[in-house]
Amino acid sequence: MRPWTILAAALLAGPAFAQDNPLQPSPTWEDLRISVLGVDEEPPLDAAVLDLDAPPRAHDAATVPVHLTQPADAPPLTALTLVVDENPAPVAAEYAFGPALMPLDFEVRVRVDSYSDLRAIATTQDGAQVMAGRFVKAAGGCSAPAGKDMAAVRATMGQMRWRSAQEDGRHVGTLMIRHPNFSGLQRDQLTLLSIPAHFIDRLDVRQGDEVLFTMSAGISVSEDPVFRFAYRPDGQDIHVRVEDTNGNVWTETFDPVASSAS
């Protein structure tokens, strides 16, 4: 079994995280909320609209799993910002969601550089904001060495895989993308020279012409990112477009009901 197949299986099959790591008081967030996100008032915490799960103590600070969910009767979300308060670039990613992803059941892996609140600020269709989050004990995720040497990075960058499954009565897609997502804080393990930042900054996933989700990302999304999401299929192909900060563009089209070769 290939390494990224193992990672995807872990996302799909892993146990639910314990609910014992609520958000902690964060002076950093008070600054971020106003200066970075432009949010004047603290968005309410409301698990009836949005919940976020993450492990209390991360097994690997460079690949911390984040699971965003909504109850079946929750109001639809249109956008969401994922923030890691204490990371060098706290805004990990900004997402826009299409109606086929509602109610939201979405997973991604991020880097966490030091003990930090990890939070999601979402916008509903009526413009209201809501927040969810967890406090995660992890350190060094943004400077952790890359998992592959530079030759392997060049050989596989931009490759994608798709997996389709049924889970709890919903259709679940898992998208795997080969990319080092270099943070700019890592060193080449052979030369010991700093590796320039080079990461996926735009991702567009569609079902036919309909947007499933888009992502605008920074340095905090993990190496070889994996996105797992439940959605309502309509039989049309899945179209993926990936752009990175070096100007590379990759596109793939997948049969929605067939897993790609591993």
UniProtKB/TrEMBL annotation:
It comes from the Bacteria. Residues 46-142 form the Ig-like SoxY domain. This is Quinoprotein dehydrogenase-associated SoxYZ-like carrier. Keywords: Signal. It holds the Pfam family SoxZ. NCBIfam families: fuse_rel_SoxYZ. The lineage of its organism: Bacteria, Pseudomonadati, Pseudomonadota, Alphaproteobacteria, Rhodobacterales. Residues 166-254 form the Sulphur oxidation protein SoxZ domain. Residues 1-18 form the signal peptide. It comes from Paracoccus aestuarii.
